[in-house]
Amino acid sequence: MRLTEAEARAILQAVRKTCGEGARVRLFGSRLDPNKRGGDIDLLVELPKPPGDNPWWLAARIAAAIQIALGEERKVDVILDWPGAPSHPVRDAARRTGRALGR
Q1: Can you list the positions of beta strands (E) in 47-84?
Q2: Contact predicate 28/43, CB 8 Å
Q3: Strands, E, within 2-95: which ranges?
Q4: Which of 18, 44, 73, 102 is most buried, taking the most CB atoms under 10 A from its CB?
């Protein structure tokens, strides 16, 4: 995994500040491969309940909070997941391959 402990902690804190303590985070995509360089940070944010009427707005708020927490201009992609979320190929792959950050 190509995130430092401090980066993982900052991401988790930003997500939980935005979504609550019940939110969990999985890193997926190229950042899981230690042999690759660069790349954006792809995250699956698992919510304990549906996000309401505008999940895209929540995903954008989460991404902005993470960028601020990391203090750098990094591209952060956030996909939301919740109980009963519709199937989607990217979400399904993130569920299968993602690595949990923290607890």
Answers
A1: 76-81
A2: yes
A3: 24-28, 41-46, 76-81
A4: 44
